[in-house]
Amino acid sequence: ITKWWGQPNYSLAYFKSDQKVIKASPVLALGKLTSTSNLEGTASFTYNTWDWSVSLSKGKEEDFTGLNPDTETDGINLNANFRIGEKLTLSPSVQISTVADQSTGIDTDTTVAGLTVGYIINSKINTSFTYNLNRDEAGTDGITVAIDRETTDYTIAVNWVVKTPKENRPGLTLSLQGSRNEVDDGIDPTQSTDTTQIFLTATIGWNARTR
Questions:
Q1: 44, 103, 107, 148: which could form a disulfide with 69 (CB 3.0–4.6 Å)?
Q2: Residue 2 class from Cβ within 10 Å (0-12 exposed, 13-18 middle, 19+ buried)?
Q3: Which residues does 156 contact at the CB level (< 8 Å), separation at least 6?
Q4: How far apart are CA 128 and CA 81, in angstroms?
């Protein structure tokens, strides 16, 4: 079992928070205000050259003032990392969540799929490419009523270690990063946008002196 599942790790977390009004005001009466709870279980498995994990969560938010809707949230998160040789790494991920509005019956579904590819050219130069697709839909009984949006992000980065930091000499790293963001709104086409950005950064750092 250990060989098949690699090195397993399991965790379970529960969070609960309650707010109460202990001093009345013209706006708020005495008593419960909000209640939030979340239960999440995670299982991860590590092997020699790759690892993967899955987590399931269920949350609930209640507003006793009636000003905000009560919601329930269900989510699943899958992640993996693969090391191919000494230079190439692949990191895919998928996140799926559903937020159910208890007052209107409208469900908001969000799906995020991503892939990061890293490649080490040599000891001084490394590159990465990241792709993310975010899909948001809100509706009831299969009918979209509020949100129908797809967002795509592309990011390419090149990092060059010009000088490695030493005890009495700072190090210098130059980074060139380009990103593109594409938004396709099926409800309001005027909200559809395309944005491209390019950044050039320089990082100067020192090693901590040790004795």
A1: 103
A2: exposed
A3: 127, 128, 129, 130, 177, 178, 179
A4: 14
**What's at 149, amino acid-wise?**
R
From the number of C-beta atoms within 10 Å of its C-beta (0-12, 13-18, 19+), residue 21 rates as middle
What is the SS3 assignment for 147?
strand
For residues 167 and 128, the model is more confident at 128
User: Does the structure show a pLDDT above 70 at 143?
Assistant: yes
Residue in the structure block whose two tokens are 């529960």 = 14
**∠ CA 182-185-187 to the nearest 5 degrees?**
175
Please give the Cα distance from 186 to 45 (Å, whole number). Answer: 39
Distance CA 90, CA 119 (A): 9
- Consecutive H or E run containing 158: strand 143-163
Residue 47 has pLDDT above 80, yes or no: yes
